[in-house]
Give the backbone structure.
Amino acid sequence: MKRAIAGLMAGVCATACQSAPTRSGPPAAQPGASSPAARSAPQPAPSPGFTEADVRFMQGMIGHHAQALEMTELLKTRTARDDMKLLALRIEVSQRDEIKLMQQWLRDRGQSVPDEHAHHAHDAKLMPGMLTAEEMARLAAAKGPEFDRLFLEGMIKHHEGALVMVRELMSQPGAAQNSEIFAFASDVESDQSMEINRMRAMLLGK
């Protein structure tokens, strides 16, 4: 009787073992373990920093914009042309806002923020396209059509200088990779190129 029971149990065990499913796939993930998909998922790129060229560009452009505002201030009392006044208003609004943007960008990064009027110092280095003290004095002394001509010629030169500054920035290794710098420099290039074309047409009386 004992032999019969033992034989029956052995047969049941053998049948169960043979019918048990085998695991052919990878082992189940353990809590906290990283899957291959998670390990290979792209990680967000770090935000680009800034370079010395970026800082110099922002610092130099503050004084550059400030002189443009001085020129538009002169225009308010020296021209009778409505199209000149509208042009000056566009320049004034955009460049005043951009000065605030540049100052804040520099402060946020612990960089020196130059005085807007530092270019008036006798030993100050003028940025490309900026008018000399003598040219500004000649502009201030003019009125009517003569002022309009000098203003347009001077502002075209001024804007062309800003484009030079943008090109110099873009040519520096690693510069303009910061998204704010790139967007700002691109806006300067686009806006001032359009204004140059507008002012050239105004000079020709179109």
In short: Confidence is low (pLDDT under 50) at residues 1-39. The chain has one domain: 52-203.
